[in-house]
Specification:
The protein is mainly beta. It contains 1 helix and 9 strands, in the order H-E-E-E-E-E-E-E-E-E. The protein folds into 2 domains: about 1-60, no CATH class; about 70-175, Jelly Rolls (Sandwich), CATH 2.60.120.40. The two termini are about 25 Å apart.
Length: about 180
């Protein structure tokens, strides 16, 4: 939900001296027509005036201080393999900050994922088999942390127990700023 302006006006007082907007111009709110007065409309208009469209504020230009951003790999099949999931783009020139791995299901062998940028390995992250479900494993070691705009990430599983679960075994999230 959008945040109100810093100079939030006081909501209108309710009482008999407040007039309601004619019925035909009042929006129906949860089946209660006539309860949205002109004073309340003006109040909400003042509170949220100037907030603009959300898509206009989603991403600032490179170097504008936006972020953090993330790209997440959801692992449902831990079979060892190369290019095991959808390739995803980096959508703003940035720097890799960390990778967070989390298990959804217990594993019997270490789960290792290699993250590649345009086909070149930039990080390898291992979740040890002794890691409890729901506990984050964090790595901030990168061969190169530079992520060019429109570069493409791909993922390999280099070690695992081969477990599968349709709801997911683990997730790996790359955070970048």
């Amino acid at each position: 939900m959008a945040k109100p302006n810093s100079s939030t006006p006081n909501p209108p007082a309710t009482g008999p001296k407040r007039q309601q907007v004619p019925q035909q111009s009042v929006p129906v709110i949860q089946g209660s027509p006539g309860l949205f007065t002109r004073e309340w409309w003006l109040y909400f208009h003042e509170v949220y005036a100037g907030l603009g469209k959300l898509q206009d504020r989603a991403v600032e230009p490179p170097g504008g201080g936006a972020g953090p951003f993330i790209r997440t790999l959801l692992v449902k099949d831990t079979t060892v393999g190369n290019d095991i999931a959808d390739r995803v783009p980096i959508f703003i020139a940035s720097k890799a900050v960390r990778v967070i791995g989390v298990l959804r299901k217990a594993i019997s062998a270490n789960l290792t994922v290699r993250i590649k940028l345009n086909g070149t390995a930039i990080a390898t992250v291992t979740i040890p088999s002794a890691t409890a479900v729901g506990v984050s494993v964090i790595s901030n070691t990168f061969v190169s942390s530079t992520l060019p705009d429109k570069a493409v990430l791909s993922w390999d599983i280099t070690a695992s127990d081969g477990s599968t679960d349709v709801n997911g075994v683990a997730s790996f999230t790359l955070q970048f700023n």
